[in-house]
């Protein structure tokens, strides 16, 4: 089977939508796109958190972000969409982790891992249920987490 972009037309259409949304964001439009509200060169998640895109520059028709001294990175539809997915995942993770921390002491987080103090499998099962409970601000999102008891942080 072919694995070229033509085989994944819906993905390409989504990337094109994301490219158009980024252009509108860059020029300061206020609009809703998919789950997000876009205004003031910021993208707001349904929970009110936002990503700031005001630092991007138009460099002869390419949008770039300064990433270091004399370095910049191009952003385009697919990359913009990837950033929004990661942003949304982080919002969901923190929503759920903060909910678990109401019951159990949170020791640390690393990316999408949370380390909580608990004593037994019953506590672990309860914490897993909390993590898999969909936040009110994004109904219908299926969530599944891995959880285990350990003596310390394990990847």
Layout of helices and strands, plus pairs?
Blueprint: H1 9-26, E1 31-33, E2 36-39, E3 42-44, E4 50-52, E5 57-59, E6 62-68, E7 71-75, H2 77-101, E8 105-110, E9 113-117, H3 121-132
Antiparallel strand pairs: 1-2, 2-3, 3-4, 5-6, 6-7, 8-9
Give a concise summary:
Strand 6 and strand 7 (71-75) form a beta hairpin. Strands 1-2-3-4 form a 4-stranded antiparallel sheet, covered by helices on one side. Strands 5-6-7 form a 3-stranded antiparallel sheet. The protein has helices spanning 9-26, 77-101, 121-132; strands at 31-33, 36-39, 42-44, 50-52, 57-59, 62-68, 71-75, 105-110, 113-117.
Terminal-residue CA separation: 35 Å
Reported for the largest beta sheet, the result is: 4 strands, antiparallel
How helical, in percent, are the residues? 25-40%
Instruction: Work out the helix count.
Output: 3
- Can you count the beta strands? 9
Strand portion, in percent? 25-35%
Indicate the low-confidence ranges by residue numbers. none
Provide the residue-averaged pLDDT. 89
Structural class: alpha+beta
Integer-rounded radius of gyration: 19 Å
Name the helix and strand elements from N-terminus to C-terminus, one letter apiece: HEEEEEEEHEEH
Shape: elongated
Strand order of the largest sheet: 1-2-3-4
């Amino acid at each position: 089977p072919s694995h070229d972009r033509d085989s994944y037309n819906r993905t390409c259409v989504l990337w094109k939508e994301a490219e158009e949304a980024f252009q509108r964001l860059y020029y300061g439009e206020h609009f809703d796109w998919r789950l997000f509200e876009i205004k003031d060169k910021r993208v707001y998640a349904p929970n009110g958190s936002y990503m700031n895109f005001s630092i991007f520059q138009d460099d002869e028709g390419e949008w770039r972000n300064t990433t270091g001294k004399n370095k910049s990175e191009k952003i385009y539809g697919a990359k913009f969409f990837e950033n929004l997915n990661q942003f949304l995942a982080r919002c969901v993770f923190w929503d759920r982790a903060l909910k678990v921390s109401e019951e159990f002491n949170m020791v640390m987080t690393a990316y999408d891992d949370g380390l909580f103090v608990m004593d037994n499998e019953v506590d672990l099962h309860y914490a897993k249920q909390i993590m898999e409970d969909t936040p009110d601000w994004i109904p219908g999102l299926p969530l599944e987490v891995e959880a285990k008891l350990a003596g310390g942080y394990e990847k």
